[in-house]
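Can anyone check this?
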Amino acid sequence: MASREETERQCALTREVKPIADLIRFVVSPDGELVPDTDAKAEGRGVWISLGAKFVAEAQKKKVFAKSLKAEVKVPDDLSGLTRRRLEERFMSALSLARKAGQLVTGASKVKSAIEAGEVLALVTATDGAEDGKKKLAGSLKGYTKAAEEAGLDPGPTPHFELLDSSQMGLALGIENVIHAALTKGGAAQAAVQRAERLARYIAN
């Protein structure tokens, strides 16, 4: 079992001790600029901040990073925006890997079929998608969940993420005009869900 030191860190802004899943780490790059270490794997001393755009912005405003590192450090003008972009890139990369692993389908009809087959881990819809299309797939998911429950099954919640626009989704998947996608069962898809949840929490907070 991992020790407390391996699973928890103190937020340099709020001074709260939290699980590392609830934090994001920042490090100083070789050129002396502060950058988000989204996977918390970079070498060197890091500064942990609660996972949320407002926390990162407040930490920058209060010069928390220089205080924690006890040194002057170059901080990007929009650190919270840069951090969001890095988290988006990690999610896009995870979507690409899920597709290569055969654990992602695109297009409303294929997504609907995957829902009806009970294969969907999560729905992923472009932020600029039409509302009627979103409602139809949400209705399909609701119908599947109801049918499964009536059959005595517990399908559990299926998250629905709207985090990327169609151009970002297309870039991630190598397909033009991607609006609707579904992550299906498998390890690569589960990793993408975790990336999505982290990005969603960052945006929400």
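Reply from J.R.: I decoded it. The radius of gyration is 19 Å.
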